[in-house]
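Can't attach files on this board, so I'm pasting raw text. These are the components:
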Amino acid sequence: MGSGLIQKLSTDLHQPLSKHEALVESDRCYFCHDAPCVTACPTGIDIPLFIRQISTDNPLGSAKTIFDENIFGGMCARVCPTETLCEQVCVRNTAEERPVKIGELQRYSTDQMMNTGKQPYTKAAPTNKHVAVVGAGPAGLSCAHRLALHGHTVTVFDALPKAGGLNEYGIAAYKTVDNFAQREADYILSIGGIEVKHEQRLGDAFTLESLKADFDAVFVGIGLGDVNDAGLNADQYKNVENAVDFIARLRQSQNPADVSVGRRVIVIGGGMTAIDAAVQSKMLGAEDVSVIYRRAQSQMNASTYEQELAQTNGVLLKTQLQPKSLIAESGLVTGVEFEYTEVQNNGLVGTGETITVACDSVLMAIGQTLSEQAQQSELELANGRIQVDEEQRSSDAKVWAGGDCASNFEDLTVAAVQSGKLAAESIHRALSNKSA
Amino acid sequence: MVDLSSNFLGISSPNPFWLASAPPTDKETNVVRAFEAGWGGVVWKTLGEDPNIVNVNGPRYGAIYSADRTLMGLNNIELITDRPLQTNLDEIARVKKDWPDRAMVVSLMVPCEESNWKNIVKKVEDTGADGLELNFGCPHGMSERGMGAAVGQVPEYIQMVTAWCKQYSSLPVIVKLTPNITDIRMPARAANAGGADAVSLINTISSIISVNLDTMSPEPSIDGWGSHGGYCGPAVKPIAMNMVAEIARDPETANLPISGIGGITTWRDAAEFMTLGAQNVQVCTAAMTYGFKIIDELTTGLANWMESAGYNKLDDFVGKATPNVKDWQNLNLNYIAKAKIDQDACISCGRCHVVCEDTSHQAITSTVNGERRFEVIDEECVGCNLCVSVCPVDNCITMEQQTSGVDARTGKPINPNYENWTTHPNNPASAG
Ligand SMILES: Cc1cc2nc3c(=O)[nH]c(=O)nc-3n(C[C@H](O)[C@H](O)[C@H](O)COP(=O)(O)OP(=O)(O)OC[C@H]3O[C@@H](n4cnc5c(N)ncnc54)[C@H](O)[C@@H]3O)c2cc1C
Ligand SMILES: Cc1cc2nc3c(=O)[nH]c(=O)nc-3n(C[C@H](O)[C@H](O)[C@H](O)COP(=O)(O)O)c2cc1C
Ligand code: SF4
Ligand code: SF4
Ligand code: SF4
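---
Top answer:
Structure tokens for the assembled complex are below.
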């Protein structure tokens, strides 16, 4: 049964645009003045310009326009929730509820540039400054690339064996097929001047103190290492798993068919991770997959588009239900007891009424947090994340932070890229003794 | 029900849409398909003398497109018919006999000698065709042999050949004009003086449509070389319409019937040509782009418009715009208009702002009270219409005439009286 579905895991969610499609679509862009789409893009790509370069058959020039602001333009073209970013405010959305397909056009040109294997940049002369970057996710590599462009030497430390962070271990398989995350990381690193050291964990192999002593500056982009605890004592059951671990296992498996999910899967949560875990469970062959969320559907962190994607893939969305307890038999969870919720005095409360949903496995997707170890470092925190200013500077003058582990920006790939870029510019100014 | 039937020089056709002399009218098969589709008439592909000319055996067309590959302009290096004269004459006779209610005009181009023209008009008359069109327009290939545009650029030749044709034939004679000339009134006057029953215009415009940047050859490329060709299609319509109007309002040719040609693609294009003085129209590129079926859009579109505008027959609107075409110096300088933006229709693309700011009069805001908003500043707006021309939303910006009060830009009261440049104080030659 599952084999046709399993193919969807390795099939692009959107097929790449052909040249003809790209020309027709690019013609729809009005080349707006002070374009709203640019303002809505967290990395501020000059969208009207890159689209015009497509329409004039200059895809490499177009790709450079994109990479100038966002070196992960290829991944962002695939994973950005454009429906809540650039495409939401496109004036053609206002005009006829059909925005220019900015994301797909962005993929069209970046694919072509990456296929040349060349980067459109020359590095500045060496500065003899050496910067440590912790974390090889989008924040860390974006920072490293920009630093290398400015002539600095960069060493990247990452706890895991592969670069890319959640691009490699977290993003849904059908958004980044054909090993794209690794190809992109290799492409970005080909600028030179960046050494990546794998399986080097901050806190084990080295500390913030040792990095500060050995390097001229430090950037921290370690993402969110821990997951929230629902307080259900789930650890003792092997058919209850964190959704992020399940997805990482799936992304790293040689043969997805070997990744087991039960016939009936419950995903608890309401964000992008919950949706991705549910859709991929379905593609793995699960019969009944429900995403169960404690608030209203309109309050889900997953965008309307993502919700619809789940529904068209046969995932059931159930809301106003909070998990109360796990029901187990001989060491395996066989069902989850939920309590109905409602809003009272602006707060969510249980109504006392409960329902039990039977299942073969449970995936927990109730949010990630900064790892405990990072929380205990000497850096100041804000809302549980490393506190940074608008230049990504932490409370320590030698340390910058960005991406999910930092206190500003949303948890999105494109936001991580922007924060890494901002940090690199700030580090560059500091190392060149220039004021902002 | 409106009546679309047309009578041009006594040649009747069920509608005013003829196919221009070109590939669509090159042979019986095409013309029969056209008549089956509903076209009112044809001007048969230009005939010449035997031995028939030859065409290149490679690409003969080139095009320019909008980005979604809508064809905007077509260029060709085709010559006149490349089939034997008698083959064409036989087919013309047969088609006319089978389709008596459709217009059958035959286009001709032979060397500039009286005997040649005398000879060929006789042969055409024997086919039963309704009229003659003299091709003085083809800008390539034939002109280098002293025919086509080479004749059309010399008014004396036009008059001479026209007079021969009138002398040796009883058929109506239409002279087809080339636009590759400085003042279109000169060849039209010459045709008139030669006794032409009508002029048709325009033929194609000399052009190089594109250069292949890899091979460095102009397109269409024949073995690495190209040659200038004739340009036609939607892009040439404005040039053609001006030429039609110039002839229609020239006192010397005001009564000379015109068949309008050049870029006609929709019913609206046709209606515009006809309001400027064309009694009927001819179409080539649009048919070559979309096939003959567009005739259904042309006829129904024109009929629906006539119905809604209260015109019962073609004569009711032919030439209605001609008297409104004036020389610049006669335009009313006291007419004041300013742009107005319909904020509900505006999609905030900002194009009107940036073009006015960069290239015109800094008369459109980009923000109002810190909000993205595009409004016209009456104190700066000269009413130039650039913003209307670039706004992507139909009817979002309109030009509003100001009939009373003070022009906010000049501070001067609106003057209701007509005054033009001829009497303006800044005009050194002014009488006033
Ligand atoms: C399942 C899932 C799906 C998502 N889907 C989307 C999507 O479709 N679109 C979108 O825009 N965003 C999506 N996101 C969010 C997006 O992936 C993140 O916002 C983004 O990856 C954050 O980048 P980062 O560089 O800050 O962190 P990460 O990508 O998490 O990278 C952190 C890196 O640091 C390394 N690291 C961690 N701790 C240490 C340590 N102590 N020492 C050394 N190295 C360490 C990790 O190995 C990793 O390589 C998704 C997230 C998840 C979890
Ligand atoms: C391929 C081609 C061949 C043409 N051949 C002739 C011709 O033989 N005789 C002629 O009078 N005009 C010829 N024309 C000109 C057309 O009749 C017409 O005047 C011109 O194309 C403008 O009209 P349009 O814009 O509707 O195409 C030709 C045009 C094209 C495209
Ligand atoms: S808002 Fe839409 S139309 Fe305007 S520049 Fe951006 S993509 Fe183009
Ligand atoms: S249009 Fe027809 S004849 Fe001309 S090149 Fe194409 S296929 Fe050949
Ligand atoms: S060009 Fe038209 S749609 Fe665009 S901002 Fe101006 S008025 Fe609005």
